[in-house]
Amino acid sequence: MEQKNLDQIIRETVARYMNRSLIVAGNWKMNMTVREGMEFLEKLGPVDGKVMIFPPYTTLAVLAGEFRKRGIIYGPQNFHYKESGAYTGEISLPMIKELGCDCLLVGHSERRSYYNETDEEIQKKIQAALKEGFSVMLCIGENLEERKSGQWKNVLRKQLEKDLEGLSADRIPYIQIAYEPIWAIGTGVSASTEEITETHRYLKAVLSELTGSDIPLLYGGSVNEKNAADIGSCPGVDGFLIGGASLKPEKFRKIIEVSKRE
Ligand SMILES: O=C(CO)COP(=O)(O)O
């Protein structure tokens, strides 16, 4: 399978960002068999705009061509930073490259909490993926206690500092961040537009300080077809990372529609 060269990926990333349509990314988590994924795509119909899907490995491998045909950017929800070896149950970057993936999800809070994924591992994964020419979507987020105690700014800054350590200037266009407050994931109740605006303003400032760039910043946590327009109009929100509502083609399609800007 032919791989895109770096210049092409950079041009596409810049073009995607310039026209300002919101990025709509679906994280299917541990859902969707191949058959269900195919049915989903058939019901979803044609898409335009910046649509991404992170399916489970099995579905990713079989449906890669279907995603590509529809202009959907796709990639895994996790990967190992080593190229190969005795790591039972893991998937490496060369395996992912073979499937023509563009963007890899890394650092999701479920991986951090259920599989004890550390910032050190996440940093290694990001470095390995960028070296291989992939773009990455890094997830960060604070828990309820950290939000309530006012620690959230420190927590989020530390995640960014540690996870992005060693990021070289030429790789900055390959980074996107998804801010996902853990307390809003899967609850049906998103953070409020005030909380999202305040947090995104803070994160944009931290990202600018760390990278000198306006890095795309998505919001995730109970985004659905009803609240997407409001959340999408918050300053500093460049798109959505969606769990539950990305499993239903009619909901996902509505979110894509309200995300178009031109
Ligand atoms: O974790 C999420 C996406 O990565 C968000 O999930 P929900 O949209 O189901 O809250």
From TrEMBL:
Pfam hit, one: TIM
Location of the protein in the cell: Cytoplasm
Assigned EC number: 5.3.1.1
Catalyzed reactions: D-glyceraldehyde 3-phosphate = dihydroxyacetone phosphate
Key words of the record: Cytoplasm, Gluconeogenesis, Glycolysis, Isomerase
Active site: 108 (electrophile), 180 (proton acceptor)
PANTHER family in UniProt: TRIOSEPHOSPHATE ISOMERASE
Subunit structure: Homodimer.
Record family assignment: Belongs to the triosephosphate isomerase family.
UniProt-recorded name of the protein: Triosephosphate isomerase
Organism annotation: Blautia intestinihominis
Gene coding for it: tpiA
